[in-house]
Amino acid sequence: MKKTMLFFAALLLSFNASAASLTLVGDAGNKGTVGISSGEVVTASTSPLASGAFVSDAYTVTSDIAAIATLSLTFNPLAPTTAVSIFDGMDIVGLSITKIGSLGILEYTWLLEAATEYVINVFIGKALSGSNYDLRLTAAGISEVPLPAALWLFAPALLGFLSFRRKANKLSLA
Q: pTM for the whole thing?
């Protein structure tokens, strides 16, 4: 019985529902620099640009588990020659794009696969004086084996039934 109880205790403690861990690296020639390079949220930004500046920055993103990724870019201001793309090594990723008002905030959402290297390209053709951008990438972790809440209620009940059975067996032998 002790072995059974230890097995179930170990089973309950072995589930690990961890969130995604991202890694962000900027290319050497980037105007933007990486602020926070690893964790569940990673960031990069540029300092104000000169008028007419050309920006073609690239960032490499990887994750240790599959996750829903949200890339939030704030452009100050959003120039008409601004473009963003995400490349997974074979194709440009199809993105769900949300423009938030006229503030120059764009949000891109896609499924970030584990152990896949993504390249985020930020392009500004002709920046206005003082333009800059802030990049923020967040991952909502998807547990590889989801742990249902009922398991925490089911396991103690199962252990209780096993102990009742053991008592019944002892009574029937006596």
A: 0.68
